[in-house]
C-alpha cells in the first residue's frame, strides 16, 4: 500500500476517476524519468480490468509502454492488449506516428489526386516529418480522432518527457497565428506566382526568404500551403474542439513527479500552466518514494548497528539501511512540503519505489494497487 504523501495533503482518489463513467480522458504529464509512462500504463490497465474500455496513447517515442504491456511494437493505430479472461473490460494501446497521422489526415480530407500532389511536395515531406510543432499538432489531431470514433470510454494520454508536454494545448492558437501570419498570407495569395510575388509589395521580404531557403523551396512552400489551406482550416476547427474537450470536467490531468528537486520544480510548472489554461487538474502522482517502515530514529539505528556489528553483522546491515532510509524519507518530505506549501489544494497520491523493474503486466498491477490504494479484485 502507498503511504500518505503529506499530513496536510488531500489524497488523490484515482479509484474514483476510474469508476466515474463521465471521466473520458486522463492526461499524464511530467518531466522525464519520473515514471510517467508507467503511471499511464498502470492506470489504463487497472481501468480496463475494472470494466472500462480503454485506449492508452503515448506521444513519447520511447518503447517503454510497449514493453510493459507485452506488445511487440506499438503503431499509429490502437491494438488490443491481451489481459486474460478475468479482465472485465478492454485495453488498447498505440504510439503516435507524426508522419502517418499527417498522411492519414490528408487522405481523409482531400481527394486522392490532391493527396498525391501533396505527398510529392518536398516541403510537405519536411513539415510532416520534422517541422517544429508538428508533433503537437498531430497529437491534438490523433486525440480528437480517438474521441470522435467513440470506441473507448476512457482515453489515457502519456505525453512527452519535457516542458513541451503541454505544447499540444497551444496547437489551435499556434496554427491560427501561423495561417494568419503576414508572410504566409502573401505566399498563399491567389493568382500570384512566386515570380510576381517577388516583384510585389513584399518583394524585399520574399527576396530575403528566397535568398536564404532558395527559390524552389519557396515555390514548394507556396504550392504546399495553397494545397492545404482548406485542410488546415478544418484541422484548426478540430483542434479547437479537442481543446474544448480537454477543458471540460470529463478530462483529468495528472502531474507525475519523483521526490527530487528538479522533478518537483517541473511539477510545479505544470500545475501553474494547467491553472493558467483553466484545465481540470486531478492532482499529483509522486512516484518512487521511500517511506520508513519503523519509527526508530536514524541515530538510534546507527548506534544499535555499531553495538551489534561484530555479533550480528546482518542485523547491523539492516539497521544501517533503515538509517539511510530515514534520512531519505526526511529529505523527500521536505521537498514535498515545499510543493504543498505552494500548491496546498492539489491532491496527492504517492507510489513507493519498487525493488524490481516495472516491465510487465504483473508489475503494472502492483503500481495500480498503490495508485488506487486497493488491491485488484480477482475472479
From TrEMBL:
InterPro entries hit by this protein: ArsA/GET3_ATPase-like, ATPase_ArsA/GET3, P-loop_NTPase
ArsA/GET3 Anion-transporting ATPase-like domain residues: 24-288
Protein name per UniProt: ArsA family ATPase
SUPFAM superfamilies in the record: P-loop containing nucleoside triphosphate hydrolases
Gene Ontology molecular-function annotations: ATP binding; ATP hydrolysis activity
Organism: Nocardia gamkensis
Lineage, highest ranks first: Bacteria, Bacillati, Actinomycetota, Actinomycetes, Mycobacteriales
Amino acid at each position: 500500500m502507498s503511504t500518505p504523501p503529506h499530513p496536510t495533503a488531500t489524497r488523490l482518489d484515482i479509484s474514483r476517476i476510474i469508476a466515474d463513467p463521465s471521466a473520458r480522458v486522463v492526461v499524464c504529464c511530467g518531466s522525464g524519468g519520473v515514471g510517467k509512462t508507467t503511471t499511464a500504463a498502470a492506470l489504463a490497465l487497472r481501468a480496463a480490468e475494472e470494466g472500462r474500455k480503454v485506449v492508452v496513447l503515448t506521444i513519447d517515442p520511447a518503447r517503454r509502454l510497449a514493453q510493459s504491456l507485452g506488445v511487440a511494437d506499438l503503431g499509429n493505430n490502437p491494438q488490443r492488449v491481451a489481459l486474460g479472461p478475468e479482465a472485465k473490460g478492454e485495453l488498447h494501446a498505440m504510439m503516435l506516428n507524426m508522419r502517418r497521422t499527417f498522411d492519414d489526415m490528408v487522405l481523409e480530407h482531400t481527394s486522392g489526386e490532391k493527396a498525391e500532389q501533396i505527398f510529392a511536395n518536398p516541403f510537405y515531406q519536411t513539415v510532416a516529418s520534422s517541422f517544429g510543432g508538428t508533433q503537437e499538432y498531430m497529437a491534438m489531431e490523433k486525440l480528437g480522432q480517438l474521441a470522435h470514433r467513440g470506441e473507448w470510454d476512457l482515453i489515457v494520454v502519456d505525453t512527452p518527457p519535457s516542458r513541451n508536454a503541454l505544447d499540444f494545448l497551444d496547437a489551435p492558437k499556434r496554427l491560427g497565428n501561423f495561417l494568419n501570419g503576414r508572410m504566409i498570407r502573401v505566399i498563399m495569395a491567389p493568382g500570384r506566382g512566386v515570380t510576381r510575388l517577388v516583384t510585389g509589395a513584399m518583394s524585399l521580404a520574399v527576396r530575403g526568404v528566397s535568398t536564404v531557403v532558395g527559390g524552389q523551396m519557396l515555390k514548394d512552400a507556396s504550392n504546399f500551403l495553397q494545397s492545404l489551406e482548406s485542410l488546415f482550416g478544418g484541422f484548426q476547427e478540430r483542434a479547437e474542439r479537442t481543446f474544448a474537450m480537454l477543458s471540460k470536467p470529463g478530462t483529468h490531468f495528472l502531474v507525475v513527479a519523483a521526490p527530487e528537486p528538479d522533478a518537483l520544480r517541473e511539477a510545479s510548472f505544470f500545475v501553474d500552466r494547467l491553472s493558467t489554461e483553466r484545465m481540470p487538474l486531478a492532482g499529483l502522482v509522486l512516484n518512487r518514494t521511500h517511506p520508513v517502515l519503523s519509527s526508530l530514529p536514524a541515530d538510534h539505528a546507527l548506534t544499535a548497528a555499531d553495538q551489534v556489528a561484530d555479533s550480528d553483522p546482518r542485523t547491523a546491515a539492516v539497521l544501517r539501511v533503515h538509517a539511510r532510509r530515514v534520512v531519505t524519507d526526511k529529505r523527500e518530505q521536505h521537498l514535498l512540503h515545499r510543493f504543498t506549501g505552494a500548491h496546498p489544494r492539489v491532491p496527492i497520491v504517492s507510489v513507493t519505489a519498487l525493488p524490481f523493474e516495472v516491465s510487465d503486466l504483473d508489475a503494472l498491477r502492483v503500481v495500480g494497487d498503490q495508485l488506487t490504494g486497493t488491491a485488484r479484485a480477482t475472479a
